[in-house]
């Protein structure tokens, strides 16, 4: 692939009249709300199909109005505020969680950056706005949304919500690092942080083909960022009752659920924009139909791709069990972050070599040599580590025995170590027992008389 630096021509944004901007904003809000309502019904239907049971089928045709009925029911429920809660923060927490979820969609392109469509006679772009640092804006908004969950857990004045909020905070920190590294790989190939420029850079080849590792890393991190199964540790009902939202009811509880599903739509839209060609038609269609990427058709391709990723969320929930919290942290810190950093260094090296006009075949040889070198070092490390483990296993028993109270408090043995043998007490015979209420002298004399008889 030749050196590709997308030109950031953002002059078409910011020129729309105020009424057209308002229409676009209302459309973005309505798109998220309708998608959320559909996603809830779709999730219940798909999971019911996977578990061989009947899903919602009462409200509306095929149960399509079930999520709307649930929303009305939640709004009409009693709004309870617990006594020990910090009322101001307690009320603001669901609002802080919900509002940033809607803000990220403002920079997502639904169509080409040119004046492609006409709304009431006004030519405009199929995007609310764009920024030279649009993806940094998305990261910032996603980071702000997590404060709502943390504050909800803290302000409830209860133990389980506090633990859920802390889990969510740790999970966000762990997975946003790998997500940022995955974004950086896209920035290196597109030469821009603008969402419209990133989509334009995928005209010849989608980044899911050029950056498959970044795509996989982002898919895993977006599930962790949205607190969805199997990474739904902040609201793990098995050990936290309900997590950060345990003490919430009525519309406040509905806002947390709304924020979760809106975040699902948002991260899916970001994934489509960065790796799946954005609004561009799939490969077979775009080759024989020139008008597939013009007019209102790009919006259709974009929505279909988003729905496929939402199905991926639903499939994960119906397939995989919840992981343990230590497994969640291990995956984030020991797997995703190292892999994302190494992959980012590899991508940066390839881009630097391409900018020096080095042949692609030579780059492949350099990369293959570096990978083989890393594999060799890993093999040598594993070999010496196994030798050390075998040597420890063959060590004398005295070296493997350790004192569990050496540090002042009991600790369990490490692999290869064992606890010292506990001396067994000598069993007491019947003649050594003292009868209750009798003196030792009387017991001894009775023993002698018995012996004389």
Automatic annotation (TrEMBL):
The gene is nuoH_2. Residues 410-422 have a biased composition (Pro residues). It is found in: Cell membrane; Membrane. It catalyses: a quinone + NADH + 5 H(+)(in) = a quinol + NAD(+) + 4 H(+)(out). It is a multi-pass membrane protein. Keywords: Cell membrane, Membrane, NAD, Quinone, Translocase, Transmembrane, Transmembrane helix, Ubiquinone. Belongs to the complex I subunit 1 family. The chain crosses the membrane at residues 18-42, 88-111, 131-154, 175-199, 205-224, 253-276, 296-315, 335-353, 359-381. GO terms for molecular function: NADH dehydrogenase activity; oxidoreductase activity, acting on NAD(P)H, quinone or similar compound as acceptor; quinone binding. NDH-1 shuttles electrons from NADH, via FMN and iron-sulfur (Fe-S) centers, to quinones in the respiratory chain. The immediate electron acceptor for the enzyme in this species is believed to be ubiquinone. Couples the redox reaction to proton translocation (for every two electrons transferred, four hydrogen ions are translocated across the cytoplasmic membrane), and thus conserves the redox energy in a proton gradient. This subunit may bind ubiquinone. Its main location: membrane. It comes from the Bacteria. GO terms for cellular component: plasma membrane. NDH-1 is composed of 14 different subunits. Subunits NuoA, H, J, K, L, M, N constitute the membrane sector of the complex. It is an enzyme of class 7 (translocase). PANTHER family: NADH DEHYDROGENASE SUBUNIT 1, NADH-UBIQUINONE OXIDOREDUCTASE CHAIN 1. Residues 395-453 are annotated as: Disordered. This is NADH-quinone oxidoreductase subunit H. GO terms for biological process: aerobic respiration. It holds the Pfam family NADHdh. Its EC number is 7.1.1.-.
């Amino acid at each position: 692939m030749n050196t590709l630096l997308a030109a950031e021509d953002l002059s078409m944004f910011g020129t729309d009249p105020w009424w057209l901007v308002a229409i676009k904003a209302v459309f973005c809000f309505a798109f998220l709300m309708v998608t959320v309502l559909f996603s809830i019904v779709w999730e219940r239907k798909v999971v019911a199909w996977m578990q061989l049971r009947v899903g919602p089928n009462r409200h509306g045709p095929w149960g399509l109005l079930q999520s709307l009925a649930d929303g009305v029911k939640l709004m009409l429920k009693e709004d309870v505020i617990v006594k020990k809660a910090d009322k101001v923060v307690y009320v603001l927490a669901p609002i802080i969680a919900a509002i940033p979820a809607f803000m990220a969609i403002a920079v997502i392109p639904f169509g080409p950056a040119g004046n492609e469509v006409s709304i009431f006679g006004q030519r405009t772009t199929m995007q609310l706005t764009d920024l030279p640092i649009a993806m940094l804006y998305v990261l910032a908004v996603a980071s702000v949304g997590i404060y709502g969950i943390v504050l909800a857990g803290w302000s409830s004045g209860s133990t389980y919500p506090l633990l859920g909020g802390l889990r969510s905070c740790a999970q966000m920190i762990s997975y946003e690092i790998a997500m940022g590294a995955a974004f950086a790989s896209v920035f290196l190939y597109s030469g821009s942080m603008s969402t419209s420029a990133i989509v334009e850079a995928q005209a010849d080849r989608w980044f899911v083909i050029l950056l498959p590792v970044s795509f996989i890393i982002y898919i895993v991190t977006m599930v962790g960022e949205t607190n969805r199964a199997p990474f739904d540790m902040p609201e793990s009902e098995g050990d936290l009752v309900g997590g950060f939202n345990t003490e919430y009811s009525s519309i406040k509880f509905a806002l947390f659920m709304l924020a979760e599903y809106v975040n699902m739509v948002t991260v899916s839209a970001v994934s489509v924009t960065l790796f799946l060609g954005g609004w561009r038609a799939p490969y077979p269609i775009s080759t024989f139909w020139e008008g597939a990427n013009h007019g209102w058709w790009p919006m259709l391709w974009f929505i279909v791709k988003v729905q496929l990723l939402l199905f991926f969320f639903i499939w994960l929930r119906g397939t995989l069990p919840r992981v343990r919290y230590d497994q969640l942290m291990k995956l984030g810190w020991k797997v995703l972050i190292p892999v994302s950093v190494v992959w980012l260094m590899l991508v940066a090296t390839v881009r630097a070599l391409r900018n020096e006009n080095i042949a692609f075949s030579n780059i492949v040889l350099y990369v293959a040599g570096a990978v083989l070198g890393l594999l060799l070092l890993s093999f040598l490390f594993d070999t010496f580590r196994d030798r050390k483990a075998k040597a420890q296993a063959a060590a004398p028993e005295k070296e493997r025995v350790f004192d569990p109270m050496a540090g002042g408090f009991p600790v369990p043995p490490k692999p290869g170590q064992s606890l010292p043998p506990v001396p067994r007490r000598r069993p007491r015979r019947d003649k050594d027992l003292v009868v209750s209420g009798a003196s030792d002298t009387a017991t001894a004399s009775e023993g002698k008389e018995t012996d004389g008889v």
